[in-house]
């Protein structure tokens, strides 16, 4: 469910059993008939979550985008969905969790996406971290970080994106990228023209990402070079985390001999320098030793995993 405000009318995206998408009106929260409309929708969603064995904490109310909901809206959802938290997207630097919790003026946030790009911190013989944050907080990958211009766009952006997004930054501990907005992919509309695959909204900072990651193919979207770089970066991040989770555990770390321990710390520092430099310098994708580092990173991760028998 998504929507906007226009003369006290909420607009929602409806996907039927045949996967047909439509945009319909619904009563605004707190207006006449709103509880009868929204409560069955939320209850039905929770039934699906329960049937699949998922945690109900994964269901959140989305809507706090650079602004806080009205008190009446907060009270409305507290009544029909007690205990359900909010998912927030906000530039506000005051959105900083404490002890794994984030509450802002009565808004209980369960997940926060921060629309600023994370920059890799270079550790001094230590783990990079980020993944160990208690609160679920991510960065939001927006198209203008990658630029329309090939002259200005840094080629290693996507190679570095995932590892950059799992790191401490600006006193935050980021745990990944929030979304890539592929739900904006255009599909043919009956009678001509195109419509977006699922998302009916028009946030321009999000709706252009698919142009960097996907291209039209004979049978649907095909991955671009940027998408393949993104996948390479995700695989390298998995190897990085395989090493870091061992170093963060005293019992597991004790199983590494001194040479392998030094190698593990050294390769993490090299990884951080490569990611930071490659995502900031245009010529970094051709002048930095990506292939050699990837070989060393995967080799070290494999040896660490073997040493701890994991």
State the end-to-end CA separation: 41 Å
Count of discrete structural domains: 2
Low-pLDDT sequence parts: 1-7
- The coarse silhouette is globular
- By oligomeric state, this entry counts as single chain
Helix content: 25-40%
Structure description:
This protein has 310 residues and is an alpha/beta fold. The protein folds into 2 domains: 9-224, no CATH class; 228-307, no CATH class. It is 37% helix and 18% strand. It is built from 10 helices and 13 strands. Strands 3, 4, 5, 6 and 7 form a 5-stranded mixed sheet that branches. The radius of gyration is 22 Å and the shape is globular. Residues 1-7 have low confidence and may be disordered.
Secondary structure layout plus pairing:
Blueprint: E1 9-15, E2 21-27, H1 34-51, E3 61-65, H2 71-80, E4 86-89, E5 102-104, E6 107-114, E7 137-139, H3 157-164, E8 168-169, E9 172-173, E10 186-188, E11 194-196, H4 204-207, H5 210-213, E12 214-217, E13 220-223, H6 225-247, H7 250-253, H8 258-278, H9 284-287, H10 290-307
Parallel strand pairs: 3-4, 4-6, 6-7
Antiparallel strand pairs: 1-2, 5-6, 8-9, 10-11, 12-13
Helix pairs in contact: 3-6, 6-8, 6-10, 8-10
Keywords:
two-stranded antiparallel ribbon; 5-stranded mixed sheet; 2 domains; 310 residues; 37% helix; disordered N terminus; alpha/beta; 10 helices; globular; 18% strand; 13 strands
Short structural summary:
The protein has 10 helices and 13 strands.
């Amino acid at each position: 469910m998504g929507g906007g405000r226009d003369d006290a009318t909420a607009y929602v995206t409806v996907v039927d059993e045949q996967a047909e998408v439509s945009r319909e009106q619904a009563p605004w929260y707190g207006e006449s008939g709103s509880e009868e409309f929204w409560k069955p929708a939320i209850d039905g969603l929770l039934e699906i979550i329960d049937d699949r064995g998922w945690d109900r904490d994964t269901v959140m109310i989305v809507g706090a985008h650079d602004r806080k909901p009205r008190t009446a809206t907060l009270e409305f959802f507290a009544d029909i969905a007690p205990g359900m938290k909010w998912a927030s997207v906000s530039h506000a630097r005051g959105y900083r969790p404490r002890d794994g919790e984030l509450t802002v003026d009565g808004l209980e946030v369960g997940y926060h996406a921060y629309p600023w790009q994370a920059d890799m911190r270079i550790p001094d013989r230590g783990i990079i971290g980020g993944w160990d944050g208690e609160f679920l907080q991510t960065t939001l990958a927006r198209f203008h970080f990658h630029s329309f211009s090939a002259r200005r766009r840094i080629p290693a952006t996507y190679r570095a994106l995932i590892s950059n997004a799992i790191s401490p930054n600006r006193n935050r501990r980021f745990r990944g990228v929030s979304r890539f907005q592929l739900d904006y992919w255009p599909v043919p509309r009956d009678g001509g023209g195109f419509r977006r695959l699922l998302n009916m909204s028009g946030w321009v900072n999000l709706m252009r990402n698919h142009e960097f990651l996907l291209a039209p193919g004979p049978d649907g979207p095909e991955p671009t070079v940027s998408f393949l770089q993104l996948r390479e970066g995700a695989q390298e991040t998995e190897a990085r985390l395989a090493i870091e989770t061992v170093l963060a555990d005293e019992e597991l770390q004790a199983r590494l001999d001194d040479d392998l321990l030094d190698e593990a710390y050294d390769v993490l520092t090299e990884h951080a320098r490569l990611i930071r430099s490659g995502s900031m310098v245009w010529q970094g994708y051709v002048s930095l030793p990506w292939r050699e580092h990837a070989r060393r990173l995967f080799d070290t991760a494999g040896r660490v995993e073997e040493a701890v028998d994991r």
